[in-house]
């Protein structure tokens, strides 16, 4: 395949990233880096295809977005010539990301210390379910998104109080741990640029979820109070949850804070100065006299207005709310269009295009961009290996030995 050239862009131009991970967390983290200008090489296993890639059963749309702005080298890096070439890539790399179970790189003889012998400034990012250290029985466990949610206590908080817990969707522990991995990687990279010494980031899926549990986990640790599943409505505050309007449209509202309570009372015809209300009231507790009145008035209000009407009235009055959008609603919304939240980019495997989410976050002076779509498996084998000085004859031999592989179709078939 013809070698491609692109103009450098973004605040991470010049940063070289090697990605050994599959599925969601690692590729998502690397896509974020690639969107901001890093040169990302996804190194894929010729003997174990990423199941999240497009295949005959699934279109793999998420992977098409999370492997954009990257190149693909399909090479067995665990031993022999594959390891030698991997180490050559490491010599000039800034960040290495893996997504294996804890300790897997050590088992292959690729401990942090071994990799730093190749490149002392390398930032090594380990993304796993349970971390690289701790109880050995946990470190070696496999994990997926819902496992991270279950083990962290996050899943226990989701769902309705009269039913079994449900996982939050879609895949928050994969995305959360990916974001934490990026924070650690960029912090370590900043230090490595100053000192020439790399670092190792241990990003555990379950710990990312615990960290994002905020008030709820700290409330238990300090007050011994376990959270209750709230379903679609707060169990503590009236006017805080999902309401259905007369046209069946669902709207989420949050009446919290003295100003918001005051504004909501005005819309609903409640005298803020009349007991049990008072000016300066920060919230109305569920089950209290004020909460019961507020809930009754809200039922009347939503029962006589469409979703669009209710949203317009409440927003005009300064009450935070939003209709609960489908992606079709998102796609049609003028704010999404004005900010170009959705965009289109060219496929790397054909002349067609696909739509997806634009670069997030937006940078004013050095914006990110999408220069290439998800590559086919091994699409850039020759390009990358030529850059290491490997001849066409040796590349052919590597194919014959099964150390590298290349697919010519989207599904690998």
From TrEMBL:
UniProt superkingdom: Bacteria
SUPFAM superfamilies per UniProt: CoA-transferase family III (CaiB/BaiF)
Molecular function GO terms recorded: transferase activity
InterPro entries listed in its UniProt record: CoA-transferase_III, CoA-Trfase_fam_III, CoA-Trfase_III_dom3_sf, CoA-Trfase_III_dom_1_sf
Keywords annotated in UniProt: Transferase
Transmembrane residue ranges: none
Gene3D superfamilies, A to Z: Crotonobetainyl-coa:carnitine coa-transferase, domain 1 (3.40.50.10540), formyl-coa transferase, domain 3 (3.30.1540.10)
Keyword Transferase: yes
Family: Belongs to the CoA-transferase III family.
Protein name: Carnitine dehydratase
């Amino acid at each position: 395949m013809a070698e491609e050239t692109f103009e450098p862009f973004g605040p991470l131009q010049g940063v070289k990233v090697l990605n050994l991970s599959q599925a969601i967390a690692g590729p998502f983290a690397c896509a974020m880096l690639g969107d901001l200008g890093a040169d990302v090489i996804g190194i894929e296993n010729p003997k174990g295809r990423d199941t999240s890639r497009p295949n005959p059963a699934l279109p793999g749309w998420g992977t098409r977005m999370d492997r954009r702005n990257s190149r693909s080298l399909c090479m067995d890096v665990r031993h022999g010539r594959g390891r030698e070439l991997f180490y050559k890539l490491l010599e000039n790399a800034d960040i290495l990301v893996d997504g294996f179970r804890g300790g897997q790189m050590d088992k292959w003889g690729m401990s942090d210390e071994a990799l730093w012998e190749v490149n002392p400034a390398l930032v090594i990012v380990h993304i796993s379910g349970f971390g690289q250290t701790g109880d050995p029985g946990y470190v070696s466990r496999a994990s997926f998104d819902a496992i991270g949610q279950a083990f962290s206590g996050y899943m226990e908080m989701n769902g309705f109080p009269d039913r079994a817990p449900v996982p939050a969707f879609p895949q928050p522990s994969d995305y959360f741990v990916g974001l934490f991995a990026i924070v650690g990687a960029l912090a370590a990279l900043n230090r490595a640029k100053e000192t020439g010494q790399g670092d190792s980031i241990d990003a555990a899926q379950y710990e990312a979820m615990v960290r994002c549990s905020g008030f709820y986990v700290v409330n238990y640790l300090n007050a011994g109070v376990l959270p209750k599943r709230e379903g679609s409505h707060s169990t503590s505050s009236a006017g805080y949850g999902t309401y259905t309007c007369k046209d069946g449209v669902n709207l989420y509202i949050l009446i919290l804070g003295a100003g918001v309570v005051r504004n909501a009372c005005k819309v609903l015809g409640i005298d803020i100065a009349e007991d049990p209300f008072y000016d300066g009231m920060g919230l109305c507790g569920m089950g209290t006299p004020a909460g019961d009145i507020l809930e009754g008035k809200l039922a009347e209000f939503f029962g006589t207005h469409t979703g669009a009407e209710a949203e317009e009235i409440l927003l005009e009055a300064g009450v935070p709310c939003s209709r609960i959008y489908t992606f079709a609603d998102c796609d049609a919304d003028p704010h999404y269009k004005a900010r170009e939240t959705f965009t289109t980019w060219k496929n790397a495997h054909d002349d067609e295009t696909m739509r997806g989410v634009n670069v997030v976050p937006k940078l004013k002076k050095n914006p990110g961009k999408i220069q290439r779509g998800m590559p086919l498996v091994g699409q850039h084998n020759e390009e990358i290996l030529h850059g290491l000085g490997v001849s066409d004859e040796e590349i052919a031999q590597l194919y014959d030995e099964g150390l590298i592989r290349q697919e010519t179709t989207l599904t690998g078939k």
